[in-house]
Amino acid sequence: MERPSRGSLISRREILRSSALGLGGCVPVAILGNRYHVLDQTNKSVESNRAAAGRKVHAVETLRNTYEIGWEGGKLELNLIPMNQRAVEANEYKVSYSKGKVVDGMADAVGIVGLRLGNVPPIRRICWDSREHQLWTGFPGGFGGFHLRNVVVQAPRVDQLTDGSVQVSCYFVANDVKTSLTWRFEQVGASETCRGRWDTKVTIENYRSETLRDYLQLFACYHPVGTNYYWDESDRILPCSKEVFVAVRSSDESRSLMNSTWKALFPYYNKANTELVMANYSRPVLLSEKDEWFGGMRHVLMVQPDSCSNMLSALGQARDYWIRPPNRHLGPGESFTTHVRHVIARVESPAELRSFWSDFESAIS
Known about the structure:
This protein is mainly beta. It has a single domain (12-364), classed as Beta-galactosidase, Chain A, domain 5 (Distorted Sandwich), CATH 2.70.98. Helices cover 13% and strands 37% of the residues. The protein contains five helices and 19 strands. It has a 15-stranded mixed beta sheet that branches. It has a four-stranded antiparallel beta sheet with strand order 2-3-4-5, with helices on one face. The longest helix is centred in the last third of the chain and has 15 residues, at 350-364.
């Protein structure tokens, strides 16, 4: 079994060599924390790098030690440094910690921390695919420790692939469980129906010697306060309650959650005097309102069904997804992978939503 390591950091010489030879079907664009990257080998300006990228997706290291991922009609900012204060300088979602640790309700800002589409205003509060909690029966330390946010991000890497797409990857190990993240950004031409699309792949591997029963991991997508929507079991797009709203595949999944360690979540939310509202979904999808920072479109969040436990709208300020192994349990040395898709799209009806879902299903089949 592979053990945690420093990851696949490579030297400037190796970067330049692989750039020249085109080895392995990809060219390393950048290594986090290292100023050497292919897009800036000759000290070109950031604007020159973007121009050279043409219509392809491009990745540029910023002065905030983040990465700007740009495509025709839009760009986002991705941070892989925990507690990077500079990453959220213009973001209402702030880094916060106490005595060097992320504690109750605090943030480390690893994830997507900026998004702007064309000439519309940038989204003012954002941290998407934000690592938050993992749980299983007998989990050490109880709920609310934010264990994932208190471990280093290892082997962060950005690659410009030969097909013109950009891939960003990293991993972290918490409680002897390894989580690997890969974001894939492909060119999607801006249109009347879609202004952006990218995929997140999550692979989780158990390094522990025991089976993790009823394993769950949460990723959050924080946003400005507003109404979220879900695709309900009767094939309608309905608003989520502004309490703690949980959409599940079936009543069996709901019962399983309420009989697991997951139910310890709610004392954490109850500090806001809220209540839990549950409903069944048709597919694991959450949607935003039609917001100005999406050009009147919606953010659509889709998760692979067999490894999605539930979709959670937290107090109208987060679109979250809880993932789990398809058989619920994770044995020693076992792993599972799930796929997540983000789309910025015009969705007015279930028929339009079905079209985007069909594309997602085809991509992960």
